[in-house]
Amino acid sequence: MIVRKLSRIIGTDREQSAKTWTSRRLLLADDRMGFSMHDTVIHAGTETHIWYQNHLEAVYCVQGKGSIELVKTGEIFPIEDGTLYALDGNEEHFLRAETEMRMVCVFNPPLVGPETHDENGVYPLMTLDDDAS
Ligand code: 9YT
Fold it and tell me: pTM of the entire structure?
């Protein structure tokens, strides 16, 4: 069994930051659960372009307020505490945070750890063998 505390992840290499978010990676590929799980903070007043072409992601908002806009259709969905969205079609989108948002994010396949968005908002598909750290 795995028991892990957020306080023990902050400041370690399981914490990855970009301009608009900070992701604390609670479960990663080497935990062998078949998914990764992150506690992610999206900074207030930001917009993030995201397009996970290599991963499915489910996101459960537990704090804050914002919205998601699908690039293909222009649809906008409000997101707040208690809202889940699941990108079951690898949808390209913009995530906008009105206030600071806290999200529980689950990725399949699991992230290995060091992934951060490329210029198109994509995470590369990595395996444990790719992680030199
Ligand atoms: C909600 C979202 O996708 N935010 C970007 C960060 C990412 N989910 C992560 O690695 O935690």
Answer: 0.91
Can you give the residue ranges of every domain in the chain? 6-132
Tokens of 54: 């290599």
Atom of ligand 1 nearest to the CA of 38: 11
90 CA distance to ligand 1 middle (Å): 13
Pocket test for ligand 1, best of 14, 16, 21 (most atoms within 8 A of CB): 21
Per-residue pLDDT of 16-54, as tens digits, reads: 999 999 999 999 999 999 999 999 999 999 999 999 999
Q: Do 104 and 37 touch, CB atoms closer than 8 A?
A: yes
Residue closest via CA to ligand 1's atom 9 equals 23
- Does the domain at residues 6-132 carry the CATH identifier 1.20.140.10? no
